[in-house]
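fyi for ur records
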Amino acid sequence: MDKIAVIIANLRNKKGWSQSDLASESGVSREMISKYVRGLAIPSVDAAKKIADAFSVSLGYLVGEGIDASFDKMTLNRFQEIQNMKLDFRVHLLSLIDSVNRIYKIQQTYSQ
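which gave:
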């Protein structure tokens, strides 16, 4: 099965969507969704973008490539906002993120 077929299937399962649900949400026909999931066709860029938007993921995520392949759209938007901040704000925010990550890792270590 093609990588995109697996990713679409996983995203559908996470959302609890049928192929018809995805078709309704994306505006791509159910017949074409079925072909993509079975690996019988590869979506055009336009269809892939519609499917990615329906799942609120980036196109890179949907096709499993690129630096943002493991990030959802909401995370990417936040990273872009951080990147556009003035340096002093970015430094403070990244310090805060580091602190939260440390706390999370400590909790994970002691909860096992």
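The chain has a mean pLDDT of 88. thats all i got for now
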